[in-house]
Amino acid sequence: MQRISIDPITRLEGHGKIDIFLDEQGNVADAYLQIPELRGFERFCVGRPAEDMPNLTNRICGVCPEAHHMASTKALDALFHVDPPPTAKKLRELFYSIFYATDHTTHFYALAGPDFVMGPDAPKAERNILGVIKKVGMDIAGKVLKMRHDGHHLIKMMGGRPVHPNWGLPGGVSRGITEEQREEIERLGLDAVEFAKFSLQLFTDIVLGNPDYVSMVTSDEFTHNTYNMGTVDENNCVNFYDGHIRVVGPDGQEHARYLPGEYQDYVEERVEPWSYLKFPYLKKVGWKGFTDGVDSGVYKATPLSRLNAADGMATPLAQAEYERMYDTLGGKPVQHTLATHWARLVELQYAAEHWVELARDPDITGDNFRVLPTETPTEGVGCVEAPRGTLTHHYTTDERGILTKVNLIVGTTNNNAAINMSVKKAAKGLIKSGKVISDGLLNQVEMAFRAYDPCMACATHTLPGQLPMEVRLRNPEGEVLTTYKQNLT
Amino acid sequence: MTEKAKLALYWAASCGGCEIAVLGIDDKILKVDEAFEIVFWPCVMDGKVRDVENLADGEIDVCLFNGGIRTSEQEYMAKLLRKKSKVLVAFGSCAHEGCIPGLANLSNRKEIFQISYHDTPSTVNPEGIEPQTETETPNGTLHLPFFYDTLKTLDQTVPVDYYVPGCPPEADRIWDAISAILEQNLPAPGSVIGAKSTVCDTCPRTRSEKKIKKFYRTWEIIPDPDICLLEQGIICAGVATRAGCGALCPSVNSPCIGCYGPTDGVEDFGARLLSALASVIDSDDPEEIQRIIEDGMPDPAGTLYRFGLAGGLLRRNILQTNGQKKSQAMGSTVSEV
């Protein structure tokens, strides 16, 4: 038995490791993506005051702390049985839209972009954000940097800090915005709308204009017929901040539509001895192993999943792009992993448009951004769509609001089984007996999980879209036969 | 032309926020690139451990290390980078004092596994599976690092030369620290590279005499936006916390939560904050004082040691080994189960 260890895949948030086992013929027998890390938030948050949770759970992820801050704050609303006033809800959603636009920008341009702009087989030294800048020019790079800078500036202005905001409270937020701040938010939001349009045009020109890319995106190696999960509003349009969680099957039919508080009826998690990260699956379908199809409870929760799980987008430009994507790719659901990048840009368009809508809302500068809870806290669930999947925070407290139970199902965790399957399928399709293992080939295996924007990777957002890795081919005795390095200085 | 100094950046048990904060220095990152040869930064470039192993001892001039030490793999990396670096900097709250993940020291490995892999309501695990350091599969063995009982700070693992505080450090303070390194303008070894004053000293809120009869939980009160939060009965840690952030949290009407840690000369952040809080209580009656503290601060460990438990005097709760209670002196080394 030969073995390929991709270890460490170091440009991840935390550490990831891929082991690919080859059979005697040199074909892929099996593959595993292991997560070698755990910090134990579900245990050590017990005993803490519930109101600390938005600040404690920020520290789960320094790249998307806004997602944890919001899910936690919403869980506190439910826990304390308090309904925030309209201004508070709109401020939170505005903040969250700004975060989304910023986060999706960084993923697309820094991580995914290089694969498409430079090409999966481009020289590895060029297949990174610096290569992208050189190819597309400083004019475009400047737009990307401005989008990121504006986003972080507004997140700090509203939430207090650019990383780890300190703003959410049960019943609202700690501070509202002034008219002067609103004007700046609106102005930068209009820039973001134009930036999103520009990004979709860029994708159209570079990816859709290249038949090789289109056939790669739609190839079987990068396709999984799983269930798809996402949050929808009352019209079944995509929503990041609030609504029902909807799951559609591989056949496109609605499997479930539920409120955050009902999540336990729909999602269960499985433990495997070889990873510290659990594997969620759909309870009513059941765990049937790492396999896809209508009988397997494996699901995806990604930008593409959200579009698949919804009937459309709530803003006009995003809706037009939504329709164009499905028209091009042959209707719903689209199950091509690499189409996730396109879906991410459709979401970027929606986030920017919604940002402007909310900045123009007459309630947004209101003084009534907070109400005090009056009821005894008991139990509460809060969900948002993190950029990388549906995020669930579930708290139970005593009557003083001291936590007695905490359960967290984090964005990327939803996709743990699907990512493992994608890596295995891509490896099986690409690594064949007798075939030379090239840099471009390995990069395509990487592309299988990079599309998920795994949160293990989200800290790498502004950086070269290339995982340094070392592949070791071993014989059955474990001796290294060949060592292949990429992106190593 | 002189050779560029070699710089390394590494993360251990952390959230990635320190990395994002470093990138927040914007175009100054180009100056860093001009001045240093970055030899190891897993999130940016070459992440091979073997390349570090192949360096001569002391070959890295400066290593900025963020994250605490939670697993055997992180411990190995801390020891390796210490050996290879002339100057090792504990960068950010996790490496400096344990940060939020250090609150796990109120628990242990067994309890954390029990909750995460058995008791959480969505987990279904009838076979009682837990992650193992070695798992046999039909094709070969899979390995995971060992998860320790105790989260340790960097200087509880290896000797540390400097500290950069904050969760995460603000971009301007990061640039200050890098400038100090570039200009060879560093304080005495063992120092925190940061401000001498407190968050209180930099907070724009108006202050008068603090006398309070009640501490409020943050959800119980809508504070005046201009008056000192502690005077309004909100537990604001700014009085005990090192300056450097620019009082950002009070600027959005939220109390300081202490992420920059203690000021110079303070060994235990929690003790310092507790004494500051005690001094504003307007009572001489022990029973009343007790009630004021219990009502307003129901979780003293989590409130006073939110960021500093692992690195403070307490370090962790008492570990029980094989059902036998093991007494533990303050500050002593805790052995692993």
What does this protein structure show overall?
The complex is a heterodimer of chains A (about 500) and B (about 325). Chain A has helices at about 40-45, 55-60, 65-80, 85-115, 130-135, 140-160, 180-210, 210-215, 305-310, 315-330, 340-360, 410-415, 415-430, 440-450, and strands at about 1-10, 15-20, 30-35, 170, 170-175, 225-230, 245-250, 255-260, 265-270, 280, 300, 380-385, 390-395, 405-410, 470-475, 480-485. By secondary structure, chain A is an alpha+beta fold. In chain A, strands 3-2-1-15-16 form a five-stranded antiparallel β-sheet, covered by helices on one side. In chain A, strands 8-7-6-11 form a four-stranded mixed β-sheet, with helices on one face. In chain A, strands 12-13-14 form a three-stranded antiparallel β-sheet. Chain B is α/β, with parallel strands linked by helices and about 325 residues long. Chain B folds into two domains: about 5-100 and about 150-180, 3-Layer(aba) Sandwich (Rossmann fold); about 200-305, no CATH class. Chain B contains twelve helices and eleven strands. Chain B has a five-stranded parallel β-sheet, sandwiched between helices. In chain B, a hairpin with a 2-residue loop joins strand 10 (about 320) and strand 11 (about 325). The relative contact order of chain B is 0.13. The chains are: A alpha+beta (about 500), B alpha/beta (about 325). Chains A and B meet through strand 3, helix 1, helix 2, helix 6 and strand 9 of A and helix 1, helix 3, helix 6, helix 9 and helix 12 of B.
Structural class of chain B: alpha/beta
User: So, the CATH homologous superfamily of the domain at 83-221 and 336-369 in chain A?
Assistant: Cytochrome-c3 Hydrogenase, chain B
Number of strands of chain B: 11
What fraction, in percent, of the residue positions of chain B are helical? 25-40%
Helix content of chain A: 40-55%
* The CATH architecture of the domain at 83-221 and 336-369 in chain A: Orthogonal Bundle
β content of chain A, as a range? 15-25%
Return the CATH class of the largest domain in chain B.
Alpha Beta
Task: Tell me the strand order in the biggest sheet of chain B.
Answer: 2-1-3-5-9
Q: List segments of chain A where confidence is low: pLDDT < 50 over at least 5 consecutive residues.
A: 10-14, 456-478, 483-489
How widely separated are the two ends of chain B? 53 Å
Helix/strand-derived class of chain A? alpha+beta
Distance from N terminus to C terminus of chain A (CA atoms, Å) equals: 30 Å
The count of domains of chain B is 2
Q: Unreliable segments of chain B (pLDDT under 50, ≥5 consecutive)?
A: 323-337
